Amino acid sequence: MAGPQLLEHITPEYMNVRAEGSFIGFMNVVYDAIMLGRIETHMDVIPSHLAPNGYLHAAAIIALADSSCGCGSIAHLPEGATNFTTIELKSNHLGTATEGTLECIATVAHAGRTTQVWDAVVTSRESVKTIALFRCTQMIIWPR
Predict the structure, then answer these.
(1) Residue 4 placed within a domain
(2) 93 Cβ partners below 8 Å, 6+ apart?
(3) What is the pLDDT of residues 119-139, one digit of tens each?
(4) Which of 59, 87, 88, 124 has the greatest count of CB atoms below 10 A from its CB?
């Protein structure tokens, strides 16, 4: 059985335009690189990403990581599949930030016909510390 295939038309430019006007665009997620089994993104931290306590809200980190993994699923859909949806996610938060840029690298752990599993590491560009470790399972959607 062949490994994951990268869909050529799924480029950072395509994904950034697709994100406009959506939650991903609202969160300022930017797609930087799309490669076989790997997605690179970033997000500048803005005041609305912070919780009332002044630190980065966990949901902002999850938005970056899940969007990165979702891009991976879209870019690696099996032939004939039409879409995907997240069915499970887990996030371990190891640090925080109040400003600067978060970077995310998502890598495929499993690319099957019915599910994909993606891992993501979110780091602070400025401090180079790990902010979160993330894993999600995506269900592949097929035509009825």
Answers:
(1) no
(2) 58, 61, 131, 132
(3) 999 999 999 899 999 999 999
(4) 124
